[in-house]
Sequence to fold (491 residues):
Amino acid sequence: MKIGVLALQGDFREHLVAAKSAGHAALTVRRPEELAEVDALILPGGESTTIAHLASTFNLMQPIRDRIKSGMPVYGSCAGMILLADRIIDGSDGQETFGGIDMTVRRNAFGRQVDSFESDLDFQGVNLHAVFIRAPWVEEVGATVEVLATVKTAKGSHAVAVRQGRLLATSFHPELTGDLRVHRYFFDQVCTGAIK
Amino acid sequence: MSEAVGTARVKRGMAEMLKGGVIMDVVNVEQAKIAQDAGACAVMALERVPADIRAQGGVARMSDPDMIEKIKAAVTIPVMAKARIGHFVEARILESLGVDYIDESEVLTPADFENHIDKWDFKVPFVCGATNLGEALRRINEGAAMIRSKGEAGTGDVSNAMMHMRKIGAEIRRLSSMREDELYVAAKELQAPYALVKEVAETGKLPVVLFTAGGIATPADAALMMQMGADGVFIGSGIFKSGDPATRAAACVKATTFFEDAKVIADASRGLGEAMVGINVADLPAPHRLAERGW
Fold:
């Protein structure tokens, strides 16, 4: 597969490495014509405000929304999760997303950088070490969204990995640990699986 | 479930998320909002921008906590703030305010002319300046989770940022080409810890994110530094000392993302109004060069 990584801002290089390590062609996406080339897209970690701002400045907002609607597989980590959410809480004024997943995501939900943490979690029955950096969590999901992992905090239990059809989102950063299992799940199951 | 805050991975990971972005110095809420709306990936709160510190003189310190709180409330992107070199109490205050990154900065008046802050002792990550590889590795050894080349702040003259990026890059390339038994002497010459020297020799890069700073005033300057291998750009006086800050800020963000596309940078460079009035670094007498602070 040709995997595109949205390369407007953030840790897109780590996702390019992950896609290559899994045996796929990996391409940076900064322009509409580059988006048209790829079979699937990864939205990296970074600043969702910055990425959304640049996506709209460089005419990528609508093309990405259109590809999502027509069934392109997309995986978003952290800022990428925010960008895949239909609704966000605590966004900057008028912050836009690509949308696609029927969920409400709370930005900076765990607190500020001093509250950033790493933790083990259960991702689909697999024990995974996850890194959360100024991470969002999923506040609520629609009926068609499958919750793949949750994290317990003093404020309750929150979804941190979700899937809706060909869209996958995690509020943590598997690209920072060199553990490819979330990426493999995306390439091998989300990209090729039947749309739910 | 094991859960850990303030680990090296979490601190360095935060800087990874800033890559490809522009971090802008701001001294008030209005500037912070302009920076966020322009697509800055973070803002840096400080008392006065470097050009004003230069022009006005006096002792430059950490910002007023009230100002930092207001800026934190006004934007959703990360908020960084500067502390004086060695002033670990200013750093503790900034940590308690929930600042996302602390810049132990030579732009402020140093509080300690021998020691930097022991940054391992903090949950909040630190960024530090460096003019060469040895200095960068000493800061990392003290716990810095991100490095910025210093350049010469408040001048609008990019030549020193260029010199420091070239120097750090050249020294990394030199280490990569050395025999293992030569690295002991290399560590001595760099005045850096051997373990970090060996790590850089093996990986061919710094163990943390490397931004650039000091003198970046135009979209072309920002793109130049990205082409020199910077992971991102700090802009201090360049934006809010220019004629049209909002437009210039957005233009610098665009040029940083599309740093290899001359056409995008050309478009971003049109109609920006006046750039900040620059000072040639060569005209600055040596004791007034901020890059020489840090040991």
About this structure: Chain B touches chain A through 41 residues (CB under 8 Å). The CA atoms of residues 64 and 106 of chain B lie 18 Å apart. Chain B has 13 helices and nine strands. The beta strands of chain B are 3-5, 22-26, 42-45, 79-84, 101-105, 126-130, 146-149, 209-212, 233-235.
